[in-house]
UniProtKB/TrEMBL annotation:
Domain N-acetyltransferase: 1-162
SUPFAM superfamilies on file: Acyl-CoA N-acyltransferases (Nat)
InterPro entries assigned to the protein according to its UniProt record, in alphabetical order: Acyl_CoA_acyltransferase, GNAT_dom, N-acetyltransferase
Protein name: N-acetyltransferase
Gene3D superfamilies in the cross-refs: 3.40.630.30
Source species, domain of life: Bacteria
One MF annotation (Gene Ontology) recorded for this entry: acyltransferase activity, transferring groups other than amino-acyl groups
PANTHER family the UniProt entry points to: GNAT FAMILY, PUTATIVE (AFU_ORTHOLOGUE AFUA_3G00765)-RELATED-RELATED (PTHR43792), N-ACETYLTRANSFERASE DOMAIN-CONTAINING PROTEIN (PTHR43792:SF1)
UniProt-listed CDD domains: NAT_SF
Record organism: Streptosporangium carneum
């Protein structure tokens, strides 16, 4: 289900980032003509970037990237935590693919960096994303205002506290 981006994903990547529905809680869709010029013929590959594949077609992307130290929301004083990000095409919403794919990405991350926390930030108005965070086991750390909207910031860890 998770794989590296390939040339065949370019059209779906453009659709994903220019979709008004997808852009609702992330600042709006990107202009299609601008994005078509910006996306290379073969999308860039890097650790922590996954295409979510269903029957040979891209239905979403998942990222695990370092959270910018300048942004609000951190669980360490030195910042730089890994942040889970995800975007899915509207036709894939409500089918459980995001839960399955994000869980697989978190499993991959646990194998690569055991015990490291992962953070997630989403608008509180994004009900689907809030439910996904809960299903994945993220716990709320704080809420703050960013990008003109209330944000929910949570943390996940593969380490179970002993007590």
């Amino acid at each position: 289900m998770l794989r590296e981006p390939e040339a065949r994903d370019r059209t779906a990547i453009i659709e994903l980032f220019t979709s008004p529905e997808v852009g609702t809680y992330i600042g709006g869709p990107r202009p299609r003509d601008e994005f078509e010029r910006a996306v290379p013929e073969v999308p860039r590959r890097r650790p922590g970037l996954f295409v979510v594949d269903l029957d040979g077609a891209m239905i979403g992307v998942i990222t695990l990237d370092r959270r910018d130290a300048e942004r609000p929301g951190h669980v360490r004083p030195e910042a730089g935590e890994i942040e889970l990000g995800y975007m899915f095409l509207p036709e894939a919403w409500g089918c459980g693919y995001a839960t399955e794919a994000c869980a697989a990405a978190l499993d991959w991350f646990t194998g690569a960096l055991p015990g490291e926390p992962v953070v997630l930030c989403t608008q509180t108005a994004n009900d689907r994303s809030m439910r996904l965070a809960a299903k994945l086991g993220f716990t709320e750390v704080e809420r703050f205002e960013e990008y003109g909207a209330e944000q929910w910031f949570g943390v996940w860890s593969s380490v179970t506290p002993s007590g």
